[in-house]
Amino acid sequence: MAKPTFIIVHGAWHQPIHFQLVTKSLESYGYKVLAPALPSVDKAPNETTPDSQADIAAVRTTILDELDSAGNDVILVPHSYGGIPASGAVEGLNPESRAAEGKTTSVIGIAAITSYILPKGMNIPMAEFKPEPSMPALWGPPPTSMFWHDVPADSDLHAWAAKELNIMSMRALYDKCQFTAYRDMPVHYLLASEDRAVTLPTQESIVERIRKEGGEVRTEMLEGSSHSPFLSRVEETVGFLRRSAGEQV
Q1: Alpha-carbon distance 132 to 139, whole Å?
Q2: 150 Cβ contact list (under 8 Å, min separation 6)
């Protein structure tokens, strides 16, 4: 059986290059990996995206090219904010919907890395039980200690990852989720116990909501991990993704 393609959906302020260590490792195990650049980050600061629609379109185009042109099933890998555009991009692309259209490939799952997998109509502040903050149209990245405090501050990896962060369009970040993806496909969720950006209680509430609403969700926990295990815990993250694809590892 052919292996599915992983499509990584990066989070706010991040770029596809931040996932190159995980990408290279997955490729060594025979997987194809794609990572579209989200316009909310990629176009900043020259352009401000007004919502998450451009991000959704970028992800959906990548998915459809892989399903229909390459002929491969897809597993989405959203990180953090990436869960919002990832969820919006998969409407009608689950196995049942695709089969009804005579298609043989589909999105077979979401393998979320401490990500906002939310129901339609909910945004990140709502998921955290907080009021929506008043923010500028564009906002630079928070301190790197919010993202990867478990990568040594004096290391080349820390410096390189910090250099690759970019400004973010804030209206996209706080846009409401456009589709309840977890009702259509299984979710695999990697929790990070020491995440300072999406705290463990928030991660757990996301998982609990999926379960309460009848979604299928499998979890793994990375004890001691920051928000960015794709930098600090690469092989464990890759193991999670391989298991999400059905491997016994």
Answers
A1: 15
A2: 194, 224, 225, 226, 232, 233
The 10s digit of each residue's pLDDT in 36-53 is 999 999 999 999 999 999
171 touches 50 (CB < 8 A): yes
Name the β-bridge partners of 9.
78
Yes or no: say if 162 and 236 are a contact pair by the CB < 8 Å rule: no
Tally of helices (H runs) and strands (E runs) in the chain: 12, 8
Angstrom distance (rounded) from CA 201 to CA 54: 30
Closest listed residue to residue 91, CA positions, set 69, 104, 110: 110
Q: Which residue has the tokens 């500028």?
A: 136
Question: Residues near 63 by Cβ (< 8 Å), separated by ≥ 6?
Answer: 7, 74, 76, 89, 90, 93, 107
Structural domains of the chain, with CATH: 5-244 (3.40.50.1820)
At how many degrees (to 10) do helices 234-244 and 20-28 cross? 60
Of 50, 38, 123, the closest CA to residue 89 belongs to 38
* pLDDT at 123 (0 to 100): 97
Q: How much is the pLDDT for 150? A: 97
